[in-house]
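[STRUCTURE TOKENS]
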Amino acid sequence: MDFMNSEEEVNLRRYKTDLTLGGGGYIIFGIWAVIKWIFMLTMNEYYFNNLIDEVNESGSDDIDRDIVIIVILIGLIIIFIAILAIHFWVGIMALKYSKGKSVGKKIIMVSSIVLLFNVLGLAAYPTELLDGTGSINLTALMSFIVDLSVTYLMFNVLYSAIMVRSLTRKIEIKEKEV
């Protein structure tokens, strides 16, 4: 019996497509996250000026200030690499799983953890959305919308991975019965 047009097979293809799109999207959002932070840190002089002022107020000489700045920059580079690595790892796992590679349990566990962190990250936004004057901080609102999109994307990856796993098992059982 041919299951190519069965409901399970159609749904399996749809969820695999969702995994492909979700995996690629998560990689792109990882690149965007790093670019956003780089722009935020370089375009907003407040962050670096505030850091330099704190080092200068401590009575440090120029060498100490330079060392602190270098250490902070190295730390930021490490964080950026970690962000990219996580996004690429999750995205590539979703892409592999959509192509039939065996990463089922791993992608479900990792996606669950990433989704949890995304949801926890969203919880911080209510305090950032209103500035001191009572008006809405548009930058925080846009960041919230993007992070909400990433959270939805990760939920979709997790749900699709679960459905691919379930439907694959159902199809295998049906094929054994025939």
About this structure: The radius of gyration is 22 Å. The mean pLDDT is 83. The chain is about 85% helix and 0% strand.
